[in-house]
Amino acid sequence: MSKVRVGLGDRAYDILIGSGAFQAAAGALRTLTEKPSAIVADETVLGLYDGVLEAVFGEMPIITLPSGESAKSFAEYARVSEELLAAGVERGGSVVALGGGVTGDLAGFCAATLRRGCKLVMVPTTLLSQVDSSVGGKTAVNTRAGKNLVGAFHQPSLVVIDTDFLASLPPRELLAGYAEVVKYGALGDESFFAWLERHSGTVLACEEEALRHVIETSCRMKAEVVAEDEREAGRRALLNLGHTFGHAVEAEAGYGGGVLHGEAVALGMAMAARFSVARGLAAQADADRLERHLASVGLPTRLAALNGFDASAETLLGHMMQDKKVEGGTLTLILMRRLGEAFVAKDQDQRVVLEFLEKERA
Ligand code: NAD
Ligand code: MG
């Protein structure tokens, strides 16, 4: 089992990673849940792993969350909060989130606000949540105006990443999570990207050691960035590579599973790379290399690859302007200097972005 520490002073915490990590961490998990605590679990995951859950926690109250993005709603936030209170969860107790990013975000927001904040333990079960959403303390629900627009920063006390959970994950979800892994290489580590070019097959076949390596590398990079810039005043925004273009696609496709978050991020990264080339900031060869790798594993890199997707450039730009990085009406994009080096580009001219989007649609 590997351990990555997120260095946040008195709120520092460990990420435990490996095959069998959930049962191996039983002692730490029981200590964190000594005071009245409860588990919030994705319904599908609970159906598959209720036996394992009982072996680790015994008779702890379990609140079930329906599977899917629609669970990140005000309605579910209210229901789960009421049920946590009814279960007697105290401020010194923990909310244990068992599931993917949806469960972590919703349960995390409940923990952030329950009795003005109780402990949170993350047990992520999708690749996306294991490499990204379970670490860093962002919690949220979706609103009519857009995704993740109401939420809080609330760091977990422990993250337990058991790669065994991934055995039951649908291949399309695994691949979507892999897009976020590629993101870490593309934004900050060319040698990790090169490793992925050689080993994507073993990762996507869920070979234990390959999974542990990519999750540890991703979490180490995320932990480092979060420790430096917890509230996204600067460098943390780099983790949004591919997300501004990607969110526009996701918003337009409607979060119903038509385009998964990771798929949108893959396409968004390819677009960010091409935009960087168009602005004379990066070399064509680097954008090509990124696109080639994403396409080689079956991730989308072109708008045209999305079935029945026909949003206008204006519509896409409208979605991009909902981004949390928009300041005083101007767009901030994460662009690339080369593979392995992204940077924050403020004040992007909307007309230039619009022109680019028109070309991308052609
Ligand atoms: P998800 O939580 O919806 O899980 C995807 C699907 O896989 C669901 O149907 C779920 O029931 C199923 N599932 C989960 N684990 C399984 C397992 N082990 N075996 C079989 N099925 C399993 O989606 P996700 O991709 O994990 O997360 C996406 C969410 O994460 C989005 O809402 C996104 O906004 C959020 N997110 C948050 C952050 C953050 O920093 N907080 C970062 C990235 C993404
Ligand atoms: Mg993401």
Description of the structure:
It is a single chain. The chain is globular and about 60 Å long. It is an alpha/beta fold. Strands 1-2-9-6-5-3-4 form a seven-stranded mixed sheet. Strands 7-8 form a two-stranded antiparallel sheet. Strand 1 and strand 2 form a beta hairpin. It has 14 helices and eleven strands. It has helices at 21-24, 26-32, 43-57, 74-86, 101-113, 127-133, 171-188, 190-204, 208-228, 243-253, 261-278, 284-297, 313-320, 350-361; strands at 2-6, 13-18, 38-42, 62-65, 94-99, 119-124, 138-143, 146-153, 158-162, 331-338, 341-348. Helix content is 49%, strand content 19%.
What's a concise summary of this model?
Helix content is 49%, strand content 19%.
The termini sit apart by: 48 Å
**Molecular shape:** globular
Helix-strand category: alpha/beta
Q: Helical content, roughly? A: 40-55%
Strand order of the largest sheet: 1-2-9-6-5-3-4
What sequence of helices (H) and strands (E) makes up the elements?
A: EEHHEHEHEHEHEEEHHHHHHHEEH
Comma- or semicolon-separated keywords:
nucleotide binding; DHQS_C; NAD; binds magnesium ion; 362 residues; aromatic amino acid biosynthesis; alpha/beta; 14 helices; binds nicotinamide-adenine-dinucleotide
